[in-house]
Write a structure and sequence with these properties.
The protein is of the alpha+beta class. It is built from 16 helices and 15 strands. It is extended and about 100 Å long.
Amino acid sequence: MAIYHLEAKVVSRGAGRSAVAAAAYISCCRMLNDYDGVQHDYTRKQGLVWQRVFLPPMAPVEWQDREKLWNAVEATEKAKDSRLAREFVVALPVELNRKDRIALLEEFIQSNFVADGMCADAALHDTDGHNPHAHILLTVRPLKENGTWQYKTEKEYLCLRNDEERGFTAGEYMAAQADGWEKQYQYRAGKKKEFLAPSEAEAHGYERLSKYPKSTKFGRQNPISERWNSDEQLLVWREAWADIANKYLTLYPWVDERIDHRSHAVRGIDEQPTIHEGVIARAMEQKGVVSDRCELNRQIKADNKLLRELKVQVERLVKAVRGTISAIAEAIETVRKNMLIFHYQRLHTRASKRKVTDTLDAVLPNLNRYTEIVGKLKTAIMERKSLLSEKKAASILNVPKQMELSRKIATLTKDIEELRNGKNMLLGLFDKSGDDGMKEIRQWVDSIEASLQRLEQAEGRYNSELDTALAQYRDLRNQASGLDAGELHAARMALRLGKTADAVDQLKTAYGRQYDYSRMQRAERDIAAMLGGEVETPSIRQQLRELSNKQEPRQRKPKSKEHGQER
């Protein structure tokens, strides 16, 4: 089914990336980065379907060679933390054929990026035939009409005139100076250092301390770059992708799906959004290993489908109720069935949260200890290196100094060895051979923490649905106040078994092998205890919390073998 996915990120030297490497990766080719002399070879990478370089009219023709294009970008950016390129990753509708996917990409790139003066390098990937997606690399520095690069930011001098301060670029200052504006320099005014205009400072005889005028910290950003970097522009691009993709989907009359760039909250949808799975998780699934991220997505989709079904049922029943015993009994038992389902989902989510939390409890202390040891090890190595340099520079005739330094070096050497042993023990515990392996563990922990956050959001949603169902239950009971209580009870009991069986069937469909019979029994007991006395309370959450405290006391044992079971 067509889905909306547009991810925007920046290729930056500060993050250890290079534009040449990114271009070589998306185009599955070999490219040499002239900036650092590193050759990036991705010729063995699979899944490339199509690739093309797009240039605006003012760009040099030789930039059709992507290696020349991105080396020109690398050569222009001098700073070690420069932003080199902007990258978009977009999911292409699976309903389109290859020709239309390429046409969709070309139209999107030409109308939104190239027409605005950017150079674009695009590639379409589809390794397994089920995940067509495109990478789009874009230049972040505007071009002049002669094909040379514009500035990203320009020096902005803070000038004074009649105690008013205003910023001017070098080009603007020529006219501003004739109008009475002066640059500010740092002077020594008595015991203080102040930025003053030369005319004022010279009148007091102050000494200038620096030849550099006062300026803004980051300079003035190029207005074109500023627009490209804005959140508003990103929203424009996101909407444009949805509009163009939907235009191509209309070419297939039998396809009803459309994509929407807006969030669930803006669209008024209370369903829980799925999370990004990534290629690693999908590769694990193909090998028969269950990925936590994929499993969570499967459960989110099943829960959303079940929620839609329950809401349709309730809306239909509320419209049908006309005060008859059979209709009200049907509506009440349907709401009770929904409450069973919501509470079961809540219990399931809580059990999943316990598993995730126990996993984090078992892993995080050692991971944090590893991070701490690595930090101490780096500090100790640097300190030892400094002491060695100091000892080498000290005179050999200064025996006390030499002995003191030798003692400190020996102590540090011992500490370093102990820290390395501790580090190696933790590496062995995680079955990793070095820091790169521990980075994988950290990324895995980050994904687990993201899953925990999703589970907490899901639990909150089920609590909200339970509150809504409880309000519906009370409203129906109020409608039944004038009816014969005995007949209503009999009518409800005649429906009870079938409704409960429906709830079980729906939960089995949603949860599959994860369905837990004992958890369903627990849900029935909780809902029966809550509704049996028809107690009017402000919120179902308070009742469920009290029941949980009575029936499910829990002591955390991170290393217990039964940490995944309900206590």
